[in-house]
Structures are given as structure tokens and as C-alpha cells.
Write a structure and sequence with these properties.
The chain has about 450 residues and is mostly helical. About 85% of the residues lie in helices and about 0% in strands. Helix 15 runs parallel beside helix 19, helix 16 packs antiparallel against helix 17 and helix 17 runs antiparallel to helix 19. The protein is globular and about 60 Å long. The two termini are about 35 Å apart.
């Protein structure tokens, strides 16, 4: 097959096969990323329960880095995909180069800001000096590598926009597998490496992200992308910049909102006992095995929706949406079954305490009620980003992570007199948001595709 045909597969390949071929590499990569997160937490939990709690409290700040850098890269992905579909390669080249430059700046700024803010941030959620100390020891090292993470996110979305999903998967796997290997070596001290404890987890994460950047550069050099990354004054097209941020800012907020949610829920849960904070952190590590593969589907769907919208293939856009939705619902069904069948074993990965396992098992069973229907919200939000509609996508996330769930969690916890009310807020929110998300998606696409 010629290179030209390979580049045009997003506009010519049958939709089901296209969505699967674009999504499957990302799903595999996301599963490895989820495995890394669980393995990382598993090893940190072996240090102590305080160490795991510290990691849970640092997570919202760590997710802020993800939000800004991934969100902006998503904006670039939408712009690049659109211009490739419209056959404007020069614009796609400029957008790719801008993405790397701006995201590197984002990473540097975030490192400085979070280094200053973390002592105050951790003090908002706990007065346990041991937990705060561990949180700072981890974050001060891990956040120093934010610029490398930012660059790798831009490269990832550039490869995805070009339809190079296998190449993106290889780069993502390289980073994730390195992290899994380095975690026990640095945390517990194997061979010539000294035992570093929670700092070892941070070094493993940072070095793996740096390795990921090197692999991306090598793959770019040997790969044949339909756009080229060239740096110079001519790349700074302000309209492109505006378009990237118009999608990137809402996408960043979409990713940041879970951090806000976790921080708010931690405040509610900490009023009962710190064990509930631990359980919430463990749940968010476990749910990555579901939502990260679904995110892989979104990553595969997003560029082909943007490409086909740019090519004015509106019927294909709708079929891509429904295909991605069906695939995501299947994954979430498996997750629901597991959370009801083996919740004790899942929570047991992070704690040996019988009380903690019992509390965590109850949480998994209740929260998982909303898993299947949540696919509607996730896919609708991702599809709107692919269409360049960042604000409607953000509206869905606001409903899911702030407007409905936080008041519901507070009210239900007070009404039931226990943290169990917080768990019920999850599935109630997913049902209500799914209804509103589908209405939003249909309203926007009806107007756009007349």
C-alpha cells in the first residue's frame, strides 16, 4: 500500500475497522499506563499506609500537570487533524511545532508554581506531619520532570493526529514499562541502587518520562509523518494558536476537574476518618484500568472525527461516535462485573487491613453501578473535542465532576450520616450526566452538520 493511501485511511477505511485500528494501540498503551499506576501505588503502599495516603493527596496536583499539558496537546491534536483533513499540510506543520514549544513552557511554569505551592496545598487536607513530609519528598522530585512530560504529550498527540497509532503506542509503552521496572529498583533498592522509599517512586516516574521523550524523537526521525516539525518564526500563526487554546483550555479543565473533585471529596471523607481518603485514592488507581482504555478509544476516535469533519464527511462522523460508544460500554460492563465479583481482592492490592478492605469493597460495589452509563458522557465529551468544540465538552465535564457530584456527595453524606453517601453520589451523577451529555452532543452536531 502506498504512503498516500496509508495517510488517507482516516477518510477511506470502513468505520468499525478504522476505529478499532486507531483505538486498539492506544487501549493497549493506556492499559500499561494503568498497570504502572497500580504497580506504583502497590509498591508505595508497601512502604506504609501513610505513604499511600501521601500519594493520594499529591495526585490532584500531579493531575494539574496532566491537565494543562495533555489538554493543550488535545487542542493541537484537533487543529492538526482538521487541517490534514482539509489537505492544508503547512498549517498542520505549524500547529505541530507550536504544540511542542508552548507545552514545554507550560511544563516549566508548572514546576515552579507547584514547588512553591505544595507545602500549603498538602496542609489543606491533613495535619499529619509524616504524610506531608512524604508528599513533599515525592512531589519535589516528580514535578521537576514536568517539562519532559509536557513535550512527550505534545509528541503523542502529533503522532495520533497523523494516524500513527502504533508508533505512539510504542513510545507510550517504552515509558510505562520503564516505570514499572524502575519502581521496585528505586523504592526498595536493588543491586547497586540504594533504597530510596517514596523518593524512589518519584525518580522512577521522572526518568521514565525523560526516556519517553527520547523514544518519541527517535520514532519521529525514522517514521514518515504527513507533517514535519520545523521550528522558526514562521510557525507562530496566531490564528492556529487561538484555535489550539480554544480547544486546549476546556480540555485542560476537563482533565483538571477530577483533581478538584478528589480534593473536595477528600475534605468530606477526612471528616469521618482518613481510611476513606485512602480508599478513594485506591479506587482512582483501580478505575484507571477501565477509564484509561476508554480514554484510548477517545484518543483513537478524536483525530478521525476531526479529519472527517474537516473533509465534510458528516455521516462517517456520526458512525465513528456510535462505534466508539459501543466499544466503551463493553469495557465498562467488564469493569462492573469485576467490582461486584472480586472487590475484596482489588482493594487487597493496596491494604491488608480487614476494615479498610471492607470499606473499599462497599465503595467499589456502589460506585460501579454508574460505570456502563458513564460511557455516554466520556465519548460525547471526547467527540466534541475532536470537532473543535471545547466549551460544550467542558460543560459535560463540569456536570460530571463539579455541578452534580460535589453537592450530591455532601448532601448524601449528611443525610446518611456516613461516607457511604459519597459513594452513592457517583452513580447518581453518572446517570444524570449521561442524559444531559447526549442531549448536548446531539444539539451541537445537529447545528454543525447541517
Amino acid at each position: 500500500m502506498s504512503e498516500e493511501l496509508r495517510e488517507n485511511k482516516m477518510g477511506t477505511m470502513p468505520v468499525r475497522r478504522l476505529v478499532l485500528s486507531m483505538s486498539l494501540p492506544m487501549m493497549i498503551a493506556m492499559l500499561v499506563q494503568a498497570l504502572y499506576n497500580v504497580v506504583d501505588s502497590y509498591f508505595v503502599a508497601k512502604i506504609s499506609e501513610d505513604a499511600m495516603t501521601a500519594l493520594s493527596l499529591v495526585y490532584p496536583a500531579q493531575n494539574l500537570i496532566n491537565a494543562v499539558t495533555i489538554g493543550f496537546a488535545v487542542g493541537a491534536n484537533a487543529v492538526i487533524s482538521y487541517h490534514l483533513g482539509a489537505q492544508n499540510v503547512q498549517k498542520a506543520d505549524a500547529a505541530a511545532a507550536q504544540s511542542i514549544v508552548y507545552n514545554a513552557v507550560h511544563g516549566i511554569i508548572l514546576t515552579i508554581v507547584l514547588y512553591i505551592a505544595m507545602p500549603y496545598f498538602l496542609g489543606m487536607f491533613t495535619d499529619d506531619e509524616a504524610v506531608i513530609d512524604m508528599g513533599l519528598r515525592y512531589s519535589n522530585i516528580a514535578f521537576a520532570f514536568a517539562v519532559f512530560f509536557a513535550i512527550s504529550m505534545s509528541m503523542e498527540k502529533i503522532f495520533q493526529a497523523a494516524g500513527k497509532m502504533l508508533m505512539a503506542m510504542i513510545c507510550m509503552l517504552a515509558s510505562g514499562i520503564c516505570n514499572i521496572i524502575l519502581d521496585p529498583i528505586f523504592i526498595f533498592g536493588l543491586g547497586p541502587v540504594p533504597r530510596m522509599g517514596i523518593e524512589g517512586a518519584a525518580w522512577a516516574t521522572g526518568l521514565s518520562q525523560s526516556i519517553g521523550v527520547v523514544v518519541y524523537i527517535v520514532c519521529y526521525k525514522v517514521g514518515k509523518l504527513p507533517m514535519r516539525i520545523r521550528f522558526g518564526k514562521d510557525i507562530f500563526d496566531m490564528q492556529l494558536t487561538k484555535n489550539m487554546y480554544s480547544v486546549g483550555i476546556p480540555a485542560s479543565l476537563n482533565i483538571a476537574l477530577p483533581s478538584l473533585l478528589i480534593s473536595c471529596l477528600n475534605v468530606i471523607l477526612y471528616s469521618y476518618t482518613q481510611v476513606y481518603v485512602f480508599v478513594l485514592g485506591a479506587y482512582y488507581k483501580l478505575q484507571m484500568f477501565l477509564y484509561m482504555p476508554v480514554n484510548g478509544i477517545v484518543q483513537g476516535m478524536r483525530p478521525i472525527i476531526g479529519y472527517n469533519y474537516g473533509a465534510k464527511e458528516y455521516a462517517r462522523v456520526q458512525k465513528i461516535y456510535t462505534t466508539a460508544l459501543a466499544m466503551s460500554a463493553c469495557i465498562m460492563t467488564v469493569g462492573t462485573i469485576l467490582c461486584w465479583a472480586i472487590p475484596e481482592q482489588l482493594i487487597g492490592l493496596f491494604s491488608e487491613s480487614a476494615d479498610t478492605i471492607e470499606i473499599g469493597s462497599t465503595a467499589l460495589r456502589i460506585i460501579s453501578i454508574g460505570f456502563i452509563v458513564s460511557a455516554v458522557s466520556v465519548i460525547s465529551s471526547g467527540a466534541l473535542e475532536g470537532l473543535g468544540k471545547g466549551t460544550p465538552s467542558l460543560t459535560i465535564s463540569l456536570l460530571r465532576y463539579v455541578i452534580i457530584i460535589i453537592p450530591a456527595a455532601y448532601i448524601l453524606s449528611k443525610a446518611t450520616g456516613s461516607a457511604v453517601g459519597v459513594w452513592h453520589a457517583f452513580w447518581i451523577t453518572e446517570i444524570l450526566t449521561a442524559i444531559l451529555a447526549y442531549i448536548q452532543y446531539r444539539r451541537v452536531t445537529t447545528v454543525m452538520m447541517k
